[in-house]
Each structure stands twice: as C-alpha cells, then as structure tokens.
Amino acid sequence: MVSVIEARGLTKLYSAKQGIRDLNLQVHEGEIFGYLGPNGSGKTTTIRLMLGFIRADKGELKLFGKKVSAGSVKGRSNIGYVPGEAALPENTTGRRLLAFYERLSGRKAVNRAELCRELNLADADLRRPVRLLSRGTKQKIAIVQALQHDPELIILDEPTSGLDPLSQEAFFDVLHDLRDRGRTVFFSSHVLSEVQRLCDRVAVLREGNLVLQSTMVEMAARADRLLWVKFEGDAGSQQPVTAKEAPAIAGARFIRSDSGGWLLYLASGSESQKLIHELARLNPIDFRLEPALEESFLKLYGVNVRSLKRPEAAR
Amino acid sequence: MIALIRDYLRRSWLLGLLASGAVFGFLVIACRVFLQIQQRGGASPLTKLIPKWVQTAFDIGPASMTELNGYLAVIFQHPFVLTVLLALPVALLTGFFTGDIEKRSISLVLARPVSRFGVVAAIAIVVLAFCALGVASLWAGCYFGAMWSGQSESLNAGAAVQAALGLAMLVFAFTGIFAALSAFLSVRGDAVGWCLTVVLTMYVWNFLAQIWYAGGGMANYSLFRFYQPTETLLKGVAPSVENLGVLALVGAAGWVVCALCYRFRSFTV
After folding, report:
1. Is the pLDDT of residue B97 over 50?
2. Under an 8 A CB cutoff, do B104 and A101 touch?
3. How far apart are CA B148 and CA A9, in angstroms?
C-alpha cells in the first residue's frame, strides 16, 4: 500500500507542553484518515509541518515519498488545503479569489463548477465581496479553492466549522467521491461523530503524543460498549435505581434503569461470558449493544469518564 | 509570480495612485503658491518668517528663496512629501508581509507551489514600482506646476531630476528597513510601530545634528543625512555617489535580510 504521508519520529515543541512528540504516522493512498484530538493537542502543528510552514525539531516527514522541509514547494500542486479558520482576503469577490488560487496552483480548476453545485455555492454569492458573505459561505469558498484543481492529497483542518448540517452532508459526499476516485484525505477534527462517519482510519493525539492509530472498525471493536437490556420481570423496574443499589454484574457498570431495562457500561476487556450468564438469570427479553466510542475517545484524551454525566448516552 | 504581482497590484493600486496624486498635487499647488508670493513682492517676506537658525540648518538664504529652485529645495524635503512617500511603503509592506500573516491568509498562498522568495520578489516589484511612481509624480508635479505658473524657464529640470533621484534612493533605503521589519514580525501594529519609530528617530536625529554642531557627527546615523536636495537644486551639485551608494546599500541590505527572514521564518498560521 502506497503511503502518501509518512512521519517518523516527528517532533516539534513550542514549549514543554505544546507541540508534538515522536510522531509516527502513515496515511495510505485513497483513504480518508481521521486525525482526532482536543484543542492544543498538536493537530494543527502536524499540518503546518506537512505544508512546510514550520521546521521540525527532529524526525522526518515525507509526502508522496519526498521529504518535506520548511519552505519547500515540491509536490504542492498536488495538495489541497482547507485551514481551520479560513482567512480569505476580504476585499475581493469569491470568483476572483478562486481564479487567483487556480493560477497559483498551476493547475486547471477542473472541479470548480461541480463543487459549487454540490455545495450549493450560488453564483450570486461568488460575485459579492467576501467580506459581505456569511461564515458558512466563506467556508464553502475555502473548500472549493482547496479541491477545485483536483489535488491528490487533501489536508483539512477542522473544515466543517461554520457549515450548516445540509452543507456538511454535501461536503461529506464530496469527500467520499474523492476517496472513491483514489484521492487521499487527511481530516483533522475534534468532532468524533464526523470522523466516525467519514474516516477509514483514525489517529488520536493527546498532548502532542499519538495515543492510537487504527481503523475505525478496529476502534469500534476495541471500544468500551453500552449495553441496554430489557427484562420480563421487575428487574428493570421503573423505579429509579442508583448505581449503589444496582446489582453487581460481572465487570459492567450500571448507569441507570429505563423503560423496563438497564443501561450498562462495559469497559473493554470485561468478561463477556460471565456477564451473559448473570444477565440470563434475570430473564432478559431484548438487548442492544453499541460501541461507546465517545467514552473511549474521552479516555484516550485522558478524561475520567466516571466523572461524566451521560443522560444522552443512556437514551 | 505573475499571479501574485497582479494580486498585490489589485490590493494596492488605489493607495499607490492616491499617494502619487497627492504628491503631484502638492507640488503643483506649491508652484502656484510661489507664483502668488512673487506677485505680492517676492519670496523674501516669506523667508523673513523663517528663523535664522532654520535657514542656516537647511542652507536657505533670502536670496535662494526668491527663485523657484531654492523654493523647491524646501518643498522637496517638506514633511508632507516625506510623510506621503514613506507612509506608502509602510502601509504596503506591513500589509503584504505582516498583515497577511496576522490574518492567516498567507497560509492559502504558501500551501501552493509558490516559493517564499517568489512572494518577496512580487511584493518588492509592486512596492518599489509604486514608490518610483510617487517620486516620479513629485518631479512631474514640479515640472507641470512650473509650466502652469509660467516659470518653466526658471526651473532647473535636470537638477530636479537629480534631486528626485536622491529622494528615490532615500525611499528605497527605507523600504529595505521596512521590508525587513515586516517580514520578521507577525503583528501588523507592531510592524507599523517599529517602522514609524525608525523614521521618526532618524528624522529627529538628523534635525538635531544640523542645529547642534557639537553633535553633528551623529547625523551620519540617519538616512536623511544622505539626502541633500538643497545642494542639488540650489547649487546644481549632483547627489554624490557616496550618498547614493549608502542609501542603495542600506536598501539592498534591508531587502536581502527581508528575503532571508521570510524564507527561513516559521509561519504559525
């Protein structure tokens, strides 16, 4: 499998706590790679290194098999980039801006018309000065400028900020199409749900360290789980039951009772067989098992999940 | 590169034309004012209003002020002219370098196959072109103003060209300093502040050195010391190669520092 992005021992520290440390990363051709982490975890630093905006303290970073150094322009025409806060020049129209970026890219904007149509970017909006446009429309222009020249690698830094749900949906469709055509997408975000929906593989950063790199399928398999079990008898009483009053069930943590059933939290690695036996004795009539991805990610982020209230998760 | 130049031109043409127009208009009006003064009995009443020590400092005597070239020698170093011609590169350079970093819009340019030296070169071409236009407007203003006032025969057009060349080199020297500061800093307000501090310090330094003879040597540390239109316009002495050389060297060194700084700096955008 061809690696489009390859980082080995990549380190860039702004201070003792800020930056990235010893990052080893591989992004393969034709995949959508999710890059997750809370604010300040080093996502944008990684992207700045990829684009040659800053110089690494240690390690090596290759794009398309060629080493990236600060200020180098090799292979840039093959890259599309959407920054986190799209800072478009304000005193010009969207149309002129797209034409300007097309000329800078040195490649024809073969995808522009199609992208504008798919993202519902009206021609009237493109004729207006950028400063008069809404944040969402500016973000759409930022997306079009990155993708219009059909780059091989698309680097997205929290690209959905400002987009309404419909536009997000359309944007995800565009990204899926690009992947189907063999393009590689590096998708940096702190929103788990969009990474979960979109990405084939994911890496998680925490305080500059890579704490996980796997496929979404592996991730879901290894994640903690939420188990909702419905009982025939009074085990799932409508009466509120506190965690202390709830029976101890092998390895599972009782969250609450609801609709004649229990919601249980199963940490990864809990003894499933023993749990099944214990629950079987309580005459369950229905169950639903879901990966608790959010909790798993929060654990990776170093957040103590026990301290979280989770009414949404329980519903 | 062509795309970048076109973009920088698009962003600066209005300011560049306004500055050039202002300088042109100022010179035309100045020539008309000189005509009015002459019609009311000559320029000597005007010079009587100027303190003796200022006349000495700028090498202006009542005799010199009675003719157009002497009058223009004062106008060529008038604070309005210097302010406009130095404010223009400050506005453009801090906007193109530091402003784009501060607004983060430079990230969309540098993410493309555009070299950082290419960005510096494009900015240099546009800024220096507008500065040259500003200085050319100054000369055109004095030529047109003299013609309109019916004093074209009094004007030493060749000396005015030489004085304008000296001014062009002064502006070039300052653009080098402004470019280096703008490429180094990341906040436009800081860059503007530093540029203005440098100009004002050098201006005051040069002024003090001329009225305080004991400290005259310190004028050598001011770029204004190397711009002497009075000598050129009054006595027909061409700007010395030494003076022009110092200004050219400072300007060129500033642009080299700017290019290296921009090439090797980090862009946390």
Report:
1. yes
2. no
3. 73
Contacts of A235 (CB under 8 A, 6+ apart): A262, A282, A283
Comparing CB atoms, the residue among A48, A91, A100 nearest residue B3 is: A100
Burial of B112-124, coded b for 16+ CB within 10 Å and e otherwise, reads: bbbebebbbbbbb
Residue B192 corresponds to which tokens in the numbers above?
């503007």
pLDDT for res B68: 80
Q: What would the pLDDT profile of B36-51 be if each residue is shown by its tens digit?
A: 777 776 656 556 667 7
> Is pLDDT above 60 for B127?
yes
A51-to-A44, A66, A122, A231, B114 alpha-carbon distances in Å:
11, 13, 30, 56, 12
Q: Do A104 and B267 touch (CB under 8 A)?
A: no
* Beta carbons of B178 and B89 less than 8 angstroms apart: yes
| Amino acid at position A226, single letter | L
Which of B10, B104, B111 is the closest to A87 by Cβ?
Answer: B104
Residue B195 has pLDDT above 60, yes or no: yes
Q: What is the DSSP letter of A41?
A: S
Chain A residues touching B268 at Cβ < 8 A: 48, 53-54
DSSP string spanning A138-205?
Answer: HHHHHHHHHHTT--SEEEEESTTTT--HHHHHHHHHHHHHHHHTT-EEEEEES-HHHHHHH-SEEEEE
* Token output for A164: 């309404």
pLDDT value of residue A312: 43
- CB contacts, 8 Å: A92 with chain B: 10
- Residue A64 sits at φ, ψ, to 5 deg, of 55, 35
Q: What is the DSSP letter of B94?
A: I
Please list the alpha-helical segments (H only) found in A23-131. Answer: 43-50, 94-105, 112-118, 123-127
Q: Which residue has the higher pLDDT, B29 or A248?
A: B29
The answer to whether residue A191 neighbours chain B at the CB level (below 8 Å) is: no
Task: Return the residue matching tokens 């790679």.
Answer: A33
Q: Which residue has the tokens 């419905």?
A: A230
- Name the residue type at position B206: N
Return the bridge partners of A156, or none: A82, A187
Sign of CA dihedral A267, A273, A279, A284: positive
pLDDT at A307: 44
User: β-strand A261-266 against A209-215: which pairing, if any?
Assistant: unpaired
Does the pLDDT value for residue B171 go beyond 90?
A: yes
User: What's the predicted TM-score (pTM) here?
Assistant: 0.82
The interface pTM score, or ipTM, of the predicted complex is 0.79
Residue B91 C-alpha, separation from nearest chain A C-alpha, in angstroms: 16
**pLDDT value, residue A49:** 92
Rounded distance, CA B257 to CA B265, Å?
12
* pLDDT of amino acid A309: 45
Strand, coil or helix: A93: strand
Question: Could you say which residues of chain A have pLDDT below 70?
Answer: 71, 86, 233-251, 259, 269-271, 302-315
Decide which of B31 and B248 is more confident.
B248
Taking the C-alpha atoms of residue A257 and residue A240, their distance in angstroms, rounded to an integer, is 6
Residues B182 and B72: their CA atoms lie apart, in Å, by: 33
Using CA atoms, how far apart are residues B40 and A183, in angstroms rounded to an integer?
80
